[in-house]
Amino acid sequence: MKDSKTVNLNLQRTILNGVKISHSVSQPVLRQEAGKWYLASFIFFYNREDIQTGMVNRPTVWALADLETGQLIREMQTKEQEFSEAAYDKKYCVRADAKYDTSREYYDVAFSVLDTVREELLRTGNLNEEMYRNYMEKILANIPKAYQRFYRELSVY
What we know:
It contains 5 helices and 7 strands; from the N terminus they run H-E-E-E-H-E-E-E-E-H-H-H. It has 157 residues and is α+β, with helices and mostly antiparallel strands. Helix 3 (104-124) runs antiparallel to helix 4. The two termini are 23 Å apart.
């Protein structure tokens, strides 16, 4: 199994075929589609004004990756296959509302937790809900409140 840190880096590089347009790819979450487990990330686009105001549009693209290898399987436009109930006609605040720990060590710990969850899921077919909630808490702790909803809506929790 590829470790979650490497999977995340690969998704950051391969989503949207590496196109050079201002966008951000979320940290991976677990998602179940048609009884099968995947890693999933959403993508949102922004411009200079969005950065200055701290307000961005909701994600309009999301992607599924293989749970074991992290290989990108498919990208979907939300207009065709939705994952959220959020409105398209408003912007969401991504300005930091707290002091976040964005250190490499912090994410190393978070991805290690996700690795444990993925290993157990692959080995037994069972989701360790407590450990996965721990991962989500770690990831969401560094996400502004308005954008946390997209992680939750894309995820199994």
